[in-house]
Amino acid sequence: MQAAKDYSAARGKPAPASRSARARNSGSATEFSSEIEATLGEREFRFLAQLVYDTAGIVVGPHKRNMVFSRLVRRLRDLGLSTFPDYCAYVQSPEGADEMGSLINAMTTNLTRFFREDHHFEFLAEKALPFALAEARKEGKRRLRLWSAGCSSGEEPYSIAITLKNAVPDLAQWDAKILATDLDTQMVARARAGIYPEEVIAELPRARREGHFAPAPGEAGQMAASADLRRLIAFKPLNLLGDWPVKGPFDAIFCRNVMIYFDKPTKQRLVDRLTALLRPGGYLFVGHSETLLEHQSTLKLVGRTIYRRTA
Ligand SMILES: C[S@@+](CC[C@H](N)C(=O)[O-])C[C@H]1O[C@@H](n2cnc3c(N)ncnc32)[C@H](O)[C@@H]1O
């Protein structure tokens, strides 16, 4: 793909000021949606898809046009914009500097859950952590480092933290840290807050919830992750395509259900960079539909979607 061109320049006029769609429109929401849809032309769709690819490496094919429309139409309404050309100009304008997160959000999914693909957490407790602890002891360091890359709203890093607390009885004596990052700053803020609906936490087995969550003060029906869990995790916004101000080596990296959006070269570069940050013998956990066949020389498949750095 080529780099996204300046949208307003391509249109031959300066970025238009936003108009209030709500004020202009007196018809029903459905009528209004189809009116807006008509303004999502080929040029606008291609511009937005290119911008998202350039910024986040996310490939948005033409078959996603309807999805993009239905997800963005609400965003346009919230912003008081009545056409997609207005929106394209807005994302490039100084006022729209913070819009990239929402745009990318509309093109991807933040879907996640506690202990998603539970076999990964079993493997972490039974194989990856004992290995990391033994290596650290050999080196005379009590240091453990894990990374949840693409952490969404935090369920993944909290699941790692709970596994760590349950599997390492003397964890307090270790310098243990979980780095949790996501491109989407709103997701990072939610993850950092660590507040989840009561019914979600109630579904976790007792050992994975007791002592790890408590009713969130002032928020009925919500549970908050314990201070102990939070202390273990450092939440940071980070674009996996950009620079990584992170310090390895990591004993394990979870990069799950993120690469599904990337094309092959982007995925390859990312896996190479992740592997370089793993300690030899460290583990890379990927999503259930992600395979890394090209990386067999440095990574060995050791379990279902679990890879190990061999050298
Ligand atoms: C489907 S969620 C996966 C969450 C979690 N890892 C899991 O498997 O349950 C994908 C996440 O990847 C993030 N993401 C997409 N592109 C990214 C990029 N270039 N850099 C960092 N995060 C990205 C999205 O914001 C989203 O929160």
Describe this structure in words.
There is one protein chain. The protein has 311 residues and is α/β, with parallel strands linked by helices. It folds into two domains: 7-107, Orthogonal Bundle (Chemotaxis Receptor Methyltransferase Cher, domain 1), CATH 1.10.155; 118-309, 3-Layer(aba) Sandwich (Rossmann fold). The chain contains 14 helices and ten strands. It has helices at 7-11, 21-24, 29-37, 42-56, 65-79, 84-92, 99-107, 118-139, 155-167, 185-193, 198-202, 206-209, 227-232, 264-276; strands at residues 143-149, 175-182, 195-197, 213-215, 222-225, 233-237, 250-255, 278-286, 299-303, 306-309. The strands form two sheets. Strands 6-2-1-7-8-10-9 form a seven-stranded mixed β-sheet. A three-stranded antiparallel β-sheet has the order 3-5-4. β9 (299-303) and β10 form a beta hairpin. α4 packs across α7 (99-107), α5 runs antiparallel to α7 (99-107) and α8 crosses α9 (155-167). The longest helix has 22 residues, at 118-139. The two termini are 34 Å apart. The structure holds S-adenosylmethionine. S-adenosylmethionine (SAM) is lined by residues 56-58, 108-112, 116, 150, 152, 156, 182-184, 187, 239-241, 256-258, 261, 287. S-adenosylmethionine binds at residues 56-58, 108-112, 116, 150, 152, 156, 182-184, 187, 239-241, 256-258, 261, 287.
